Automatic annotation (TrEMBL):
Pfam families in the record: Rubredoxin (PF00301)
UniProt keywords, alphabetically: Electron transport, Iron, Metal-binding, Transport
Function: Involved in the hydrocarbon hydroxylating system, which transfers electrons from NADH to rubredoxin reductase and then through rubredoxin to alkane 1 monooxygenase.
Molecular function in Gene Ontology: electron transfer activity; iron ion binding
UniProt record similarity statement: Belongs to the rubredoxin family.
UniProt keyword annotation of Metal-binding present: yes
Cofactor(s) essential for the protein: Fe(3+)
Gene3D superfamilies: 2.20.28.10
Signal peptide: none
Domain Rubredoxin-like: 7-58
InterPro entries, A to Z: Rubredoxin-like_dom, Rubredoxin_dom, Rubredoxin_ET, Rubredoxin_Fe_BS
UniProt name for this protein: Rubredoxin
Amino acid sequence: MSDTPGKRAWMCLLCGWVYYEALGLPEEGIAPGTPWEEIPDTWECPACGASKEDFVMEQL
């Protein structure tokens, strides 16, 4: 598992959607390589609307 910011993945515990830091989320203005910590706390899962605190770091 990578614990290097910009190279991690975070999975939504409610729906399983995964945010890959290396890919970012350009359609929401989040550039590739954006570490999880830099995403606003008000951000929500694009698939189910879960809050950022409902995500856990996943093994790559």
